[in-house]
Amino acid sequence: MDTYHDDKYFMTFDSTVKMSDAIAIEANNLTKVYRDSIRAVDGISFSVRQGEIFGLLGPNGAGKTTTIKMIITLTKATSGTLHVFGIDVFKSPETVREMLGYVPQSISVDTDLTAYENLLIFSKLSYVNKKERNERIRNALEYMDLSSRADDIVKRYSGGMMRRLEIAQALVNRPKILLLDEPSIGLDPSSKKQVWKNIKQLNQEFGTTILITTHDMGEADELCDRIAIMSEGKIAILGTPLDLKRDVGGDIVTVNLAFTPPIMSLPKEIGNIVHNNEKSIQILTTNGEEAIPLIADFFRSHEIRVESISINKANLDDVFMKYAKRRLGDEMYKATRNTRRDFARRAR
Amino acid sequence: MNIRRFLSSSITIAEMEARKIRHDSTELWTRIIQPALWLLVFGETFNAIKAMPSGNFSYIQFITPGILAQSVLFISIFYGITVVWEKDVGIITKLLSTPSPRSSIVLGKSLAAGLRGAFQAIVIFALALLIGAKIRLDPIDVAGVFAVVILFAMCFSSLSMFLASYLKTRDRMMGIGQALTMPLFFASNAIYPISVMPIWLQYVSIANPLSYAVDAIRSMLLVGTYGNLLVDMLVLFLSTIVFLVLASMSIKKLLE
Known about the structure:
Largest sheet of chain A: 6 strands, mixed
Number of domains of chain B: 1
Structural class of chain A: alpha/beta
Radius of gyration of chain B: 18 Å
Helix content of chain B: over 70%
Distance between the termini of chain B: 25 Å
Largest interface: A-B, 32 and 26 residues
Oligomer: heterodimer
């Protein structure tokens, strides 16, 4: 079993590992129906490439956690197939668990033990070689910046430290894939940043494949190479954060003019006017930053003085609203979009 | 399944419990109060009025093995609550997500209950000596008593884990624990001999593992003859295996 583990896990820097073509997780038509006939996961298919950070997004109850639980073999799929590095998850659960590190949604370290003891017990249960055990524990603690508090009872830790300890715990068996279920839930902004830094570092330095679930769009945008948005057990859309943002139409540039211009139209390459409120014009562009100089030039050439230009970048919230809550109807999506515009207007 | 890995995981789970107890042993000490009251109040009183036909032994001698078994029963029948609590805080999820086989987690947890039972045994030995109840202190018998106590704790803690897999909440486990302990206790030979029971209750007590545990402890601690010991141990061993297997199969349901 030790062949799964790269012995230099904490020492090598190998950027070639990142984004290889190997498939780390492959789900095909994966379905989970609970006893009360709720289709928590409804025939989803996706694959996670080795070395990428893959995000499963969606509102509460979309089926993200159920999906993760099927991968870590805590719950069995009703139908469909699931492979981790080619191994059938349902046929060889223990072999699969050996390749995975799992950080559940709620804090699950044992708060009655010290950090060191938590890692010790966990490394024993993961059958880490006795000779390597202590070094791996030390490395994992160091890596998560917890060395100085290793012998404290975890009860006295802050939420952020507990979360980091949890990731450290998932690292002692040097997983090929790390499954993080809502890793930054309930953390203050600075702890959140620290956890993000650790996650990115793991991925970049050691090529660990990471599957993360979240409903925080900022987090997904910050961390993920690719994102699947889930809604009611299905994958609504899958792509890179950039693709998804493009999908909702791009950035809105608001131009405030010195006086109300005569009726006019913008050249296509700049964008479309979506809202026109006398001296204030909102333009939908594919890339706001690039559009600003063009817009400025355009008004200058028409001898209309521009007082200010502001930009409201499309973000994953828009994507989320569009796909995750589609059932609520376009009304809601439009309403959000309008709210955002109103907000942009007030913000000027 | 690799047997060495299986055993090492089980022992690790027990080690986890031992480490927790080392950090905070308050619970262990509070667990002593109840058996102490049984011995010091109930035992002494009934000893003085000589109301129970306890054979060749004083009542306090007769009751000591019963109280030991009873206090271990209490600890282990409520062990499922600990497991439910550990599920609620995510520890069980974490344990079940390791490569360790599920059955080794269950066996480890039952060993942990055995560990707590062994601590009770030490304390009750000390109490018995303190109040001058004459018990046999032959090393082999004492070791035998510990073996019975650990096996008995494993038996009922795995029953408790099996029930917890279906009941899932602490409240329900509390209820079922209360509902089970008293019938098990009174339908056993813990505080009176089976011969004084009404006939129907005698039949119930034959199906009660507690009776066998008490009988085994009594034969080693008081009587010194081992006529029934083999049967006692066999019954305990078999019921432990049955409950361990049931709990191993059901434990995953706890997470649902």
